[in-house]
Design brief:
The complex is a heterodimer of chains A (111) and B (113). Chain A contains no helices and twelve strands. With 111 residues, chain A is mainly beta. In chain A, the strands form three sheets. In chain A, strands 2, 5, 6, 10, 11 and 12 form a six-stranded mixed sheet that branches. In chain A, 36% of the residues are buried. The termini of chain B are far apart. Chain B is globular and about 40 Å long. The model of chain B has no long low-confidence stretch (mean pLDDT 93). Chain B has no helices and eleven strands. By secondary structure, chain B is mainly β. Classes of the chains: A mainly beta (111), B mainly beta (113).
């Protein structure tokens, strides 16, 4: 069965510093990988996805993610964090039409 | 705004009761998904409908059921409610096709007392 791991429950970073939120996926065929963000009392918002092609994917709000097949990883990155980036981030792997979500990583950007 | 709407936003009910949650997908999306988000279980896929037909089932309890109507809106019915059913319930929609992103509604917060 597909599974997605986000090894860090919490990531703290200072405003202006680069941020990384980690995600690894289980290997089963070609992965379709997604990142979503959830702000308090809101639904999940789509940030970006990897289907095929370039391993570096650019998404909304300045976020990007790097697909690494050998490490089965899809880490979310941003060169310069903003306080407003503080939220819960979910990685997901899609098989067919169904998504398997990771447990989420809470990002806190400190001013 | 994702274009997916859910009603009601909040629901408070007692154990043993039955509730219905409603979802309207984005215009043009034929697939609707239901998820449950709780503190201890994370985001759990419940069920998917595509153009009125059940497409996939996840960790959905027998006490729960769903349907998608001809106008593509969907309803999630939760019956014989227990305290542990208290959670956020999200609906998402997508176009058909592998690798397409899902767009989530704002959720319904259910509290069972």
């Amino acid at each position: 069965a597909q599974s997605v791991a986000q090894p860090e429950d919490q990531v703290n970073v200072a405003e202006g510093n680069p941020l990384t939120v980690k995600c690894t996926y289980s290997v089963s065929g070609n992965p379709y990988l997604f990142w979503y963000v959830q702000y308090p009392n809101r639904g999940l918002q789509f940030l970006l996805k990897y289907i095929t092609g370039d391993n570096l994917v650019k998404g909304s709000y300045g976020f990007e993610a790097e697909f690494n097949k050998s490490q089965t990883s899809f880490h979310l990155k941003k060169p310069s964090a903003l306080v407003s980036d503080s939220a819960l981030y979910f990685c997901a792997d899609a098989y067919g039409q169904n998504f398997v979500f990771g447990p989420g990583t809470r990002l806190s950007v400190l001013p | 705004d994702s274009g997916v709407t859910q009603t009601p936003k909040h629901l408070i009910t007692a154990t043993g009761q039955r509730v219905t949650l409603r979802c309207s997908p984005r215009s043009g999306d034929l697939s609707v998904y239901w998820y449950q988000q709780s503190l201890d279980q994370g985001l759990q896929f419940l069920i998917q409908y595509y153009n009125g037909e059940e497409r996939a089932k996840g960790n959905i309890l027998e006490r729960f059921s769903a349907q998608q109507f001809p106008d593509l809106h969907s309803e999630l019915n939760l019956s014989s409610l227990e305290l542990g059913d208290s959670a956020l319930y999200f609906c998402a929609s997508s176009v058909e096709g592998q690798g397409t992103e899902q767009y989530f509604g704002p959720g319904t917060r259910l509290t069972v007392t």
